[in-house]
Amino acid sequence: MLKTILASALLIVASTAQAGFEYTRDTTVRDELNGQFRMTAAGVIGEEDGSRLAEGRYTNFHPRNEATNVLDGTVTREAFRDGDMVAVSYDGNLTLTTAATGNGNGSGNPQSRTTTIAFTDLTIERAEEGVTISGSVLVNGQSVDAAALPRPIKAVIVNALRLFRL
Predict the structure, then answer these.
(1) Alpha-carbon distance 39 to 80, whole Å?
(2) Please, which residues have CB within 8 angstroms of residue 54's CB and are 6 or more apart in sequence?
(3) Are 100 and 110 in contact (CB under 8 A)?
(4) Domain boundaries defined on the chain
(5) Which residue of 42, 91, 115, 148 sits 20 to 30 Å from the alpha carbon of 9, by its own alpha carbon?
(6) Mean pLDDT across the stretch 125-132?
(7) Residue 129 burial by CB count (10 A; 0-12/13-18/19+): exposed, middle or buried?
(8) Rounded to whole angstroms, how far apart are CA atoms 46 and 143?
C-alpha cells in the first residue's frame, strides 16, 4: 500500500514537472515614509523554459527612504527563459520628484525638480563587472541611449527595477 502511494506521488510530481507550473503573485513594499511599490506577477515555470509578466506601480515611493526623492509611475517586466537563454525587458513611465533645499528661486521658497523617465524594451544585465543597461530612454522628452545615461538617472532606474526581483 505504501509503495503504491509513493509511486503515485512520484508519478504526479514527474508529470507536473514536465508540464510546468503556473503561478500568480501580489507583493507590496512600503517605505518608512508611507510610499509603496505594488507588483502583480503571473507566469509559467517549466523544467527547460518559462515566462513571467509583472507590473509594478510606484506610488509616492521613496527609493532608499530619502524624503527628498519621490518616485511615481508604472513599469512592466517581461522575462522569458528557453534553456540557457534568458531575456528580460522593461517598459515604463516614471516620474522622479526631487525636493530642493535652500533658496531655490531667490524668494526663500525652495523649488522641487521633476524628471520624467520613459522607456521601452530596456534591458539590464547584472554581472561581476557591474550593471549593463541598454535600450533607449526618454528623459524629460529627450532621447538618451541607456548606456550614456547620467549616473543619477541610471541609479534611479536600476534601483527601481531591482524591486522586481523580490
Answers:
(1) 18
(2) 39, 40, 41, 42, 76, 77, 79, 164
(3) yes
(4) 22-165
(5) 42
(6) 74
(7) exposed
(8) 38
